[in-house]
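Cross-check.
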Amino acid sequence: QVQVVESGGGLVQPGGSLRLSCAASGSILSIYGMNWYRQPPGNQRDLVAVWRPGGSTNYADSVKGRFTISKDNAKNTVYLQMNSLKPEDTAIYYCNADVMSTSRARFVSWGQGTQVTVSS
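Predicted model, tokenized:
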């Protein structure tokens, strides 16, 4: 009913930049928030960035000042602009969307993840 798809990952050198996209689609009535997480190799999945209606944002300390989350409301898409990338940013990046469907159900949908590798 609701799908979330991440894209934009890849291989980048330290100090470089990438922009990830997260598109929510399907029978969406309202979006209450969209979020980026990441899971480094051998580690747990951690919250990276939060977007909420009205444009408020929050970031993990590890990425604050380097990453920016933004939303294109016309496309129900959020972006994660990642600058000054470090090897420790290497992870699978996941997006989720906190939504209400057109059937008035409230739930969180997760994407499949996109790999980001920061290496020289």
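The first strand starts at residue 2 and ends at 7. The chain is about 0% helix and 60% strand. Passed to J.P. for a second look.
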